[in-house]
């Protein structure tokens, strides 16, 4: 959260100093490099995280093999980035920025954050992220003052990337491990066979999300795209907490799945209950205050996007709950299930979006996104046995019902203002969770005790029954 706040400040400062044209050039280059970075990692860090969490004795070998394979992929992608800079229809400043970003791809391959997560040393990952964000903000303020300083921006990124690698390697030494590199073709093929479905799934998600913007722009123009983009950004910020949660929960689930399927099932059930309680609350409160949030963040012209924001918040709630089974699939070496689920979800999104955008504009695009997430969740949950499948999903029904009731009652205060309505929904939802015993004092004490437990014992504290 802290690093995101500093990144936001960096972008705000940068936008004011290098003007919209320069800021757009950096944004275009970053969008292309994000795809190259996706391919250079290819899901390998997630596979290594799983294997390291399940068998910490293999970490040294994993560090050597995964780093070597990621370096090989990133070095192969450097000429691809340089060719893209030469032939893509961008401005010359944007091409220059892209060239520097492409040359820095091998540096990203040396990142070892996945090791900290595998060892459940989350504070090391947090230190690296915060230090990188703070250094980026500092260097940007010191060295970028005018639009003519645009070409300094990517080099500052290279400098902060190198500093982040140096810091992470120092912290890696404190865990008793060190960075080394090796490359064996047979072993690399085995890792790629496991990781490529995850890479393809990430590509599919990115493409079908961007497809909504393209369809909206074609049918309704830039203004409607801006409405949908504003709603998407707010929904992403609201559900940032769920991505942070799964960063911490996933290694514990992966470790337990290798040690005891019963303990893994208990942690999954608890996680579904916790994420459902949190996600349903975020959806209800955010939907009640959607208009006020849009007015406060983007201004009154964006108020027509309030319905789209409410639907996108529902999509975020679905993702927050169903991601539990996505983590279980990775822990159980069923990566292809995620690929199939994403592919079917993308098809559902395109069909619904194409059918509804013409009449409902950004709201239709949001409904298409919600349909995609529902399909993805259904496909990911359906193949599992009842004790870790639909039976576990029942834990989310009570929070969803409480949230619906709280939203209906809270909307009665809408004439007083969105913030009043959102506050009322929050109070009603909390009271409903307590009254229905969805959340109890034992839950609160267990969370506090789990936060005080260091290292791998945290997963046992979370999975213990009261």
Describe the fold and architecture.
By secondary structure, the protein is mostly helical. It has two domains: 2-183, no CATH class; 196-463, no CATH class. It is 82% helix and 0% strand. The protein contains 21 helices and no strands. It is globular, with a radius of gyration of 23 Å. The model is unreliable at 458-463 (pLDDT under 50).
What series of H and E elements makes up the topology? HHHHHHHHHHHHHHHHHHHHH
What is the residue-mean pLDDT, rounded to a whole number? Answer: 82
What distance separates the N and C termini?
Answer: 31 Å
Helix content: over 70%
Q: Rg from C-alpha positions? A: 23 Å
Q: Which stretches of 5+ consecutive residues score pLDDT under 50? A: 458-463
């Amino acid at each position: 959260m802290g690093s995101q706040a500093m990144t936001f400040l960096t972008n705000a400062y940068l936008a004011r100093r290098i003007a919209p044209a320069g800021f757009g050039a950096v944004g275009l280059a970053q969008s292309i490099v994000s795809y190259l970075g996706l391919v250079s990692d290819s899901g390998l860090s997630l596979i290594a995280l799983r294997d390291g969490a399940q068998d910490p004795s293999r970490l040294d070998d994993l560090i050597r093999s995964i780093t070597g394979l990621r370096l090989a992929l990133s070095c192969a992608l450097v000429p691809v980035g340089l060719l893209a800079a030469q032939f893509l229809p961008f401005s010359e400043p944007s091409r220059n920025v892209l060239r520097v970003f492409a040359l820095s791809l091998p540096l990203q391959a040396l990142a070892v954050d996945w090791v900290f997560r595998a060892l459940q040393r989350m504070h090391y990952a947090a230190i690296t992220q915060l230090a990188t964000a703070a250094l980026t903000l500092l260097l940007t303020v010191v060295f970028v003052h005018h639009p003519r300083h645009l070409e300094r921006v990517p080099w500052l990124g290279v400098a902060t990337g190198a500093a982040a690698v140096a810091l992470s390697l120092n912290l890696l030494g404190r865990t008793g491990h060190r960075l080394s590199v090796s490359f064996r073709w047979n072993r690399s093929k085995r890792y790629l066979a496991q990781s490529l479905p995850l890479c393809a799934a990430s590509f599919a998600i990115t493409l079908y999300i961007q497809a909504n913007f393209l369809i909206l722009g074609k049918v309704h123009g830039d203004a409607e795209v801006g409405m949908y983009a504003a709603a998407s950004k707010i929904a992403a910020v609201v559900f940032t907490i769920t991505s942070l949660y799964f960063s911490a929960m996933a290694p514990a689930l992966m470790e337990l799945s290798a040690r005891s399927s019963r303990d893994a099932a208990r942690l999954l059930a608890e996680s579904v209950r916790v994420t459902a309680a949190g996600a349903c609350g975020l959806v209800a409160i955010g939907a009640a205050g959607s208009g006020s949030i849009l007015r406060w963040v983007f201004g009154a012209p964006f108020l027509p996007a309030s319905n789209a924001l409410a639907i996108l918040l529902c999509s975020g709630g679905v993702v927050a709950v169903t991601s539990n089974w996505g983590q279980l699939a990775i822990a159980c070496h069923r990566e292809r299930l995620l690929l199939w689920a994403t592919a079917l979800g993308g098809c559902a999104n395109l069909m619904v979006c194409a059918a509804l955008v013409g009449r409902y504009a950004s709201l239709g695009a949001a409904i298409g996104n919600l349909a995609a997430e529902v399909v993805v969740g259904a496909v990911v949950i359906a193949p599992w046995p009842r004790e870790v499948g639909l039976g576990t999903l029942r834990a989310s029904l009570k929070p969803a019902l409480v949230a619906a009731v709280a939203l209906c009652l809270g909307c009665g205060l809408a004439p007083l203002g969105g913030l009043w309505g959102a506050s009322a929904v929050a109070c009603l939802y909390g009271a409903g969770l307590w009254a229905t015993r969805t959340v109890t004092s034992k839950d609160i004490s267990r969370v506090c005790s789990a936060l005080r437990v260091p290292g791998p014992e945290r997963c046992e504290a979370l999975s213990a029954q009261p």
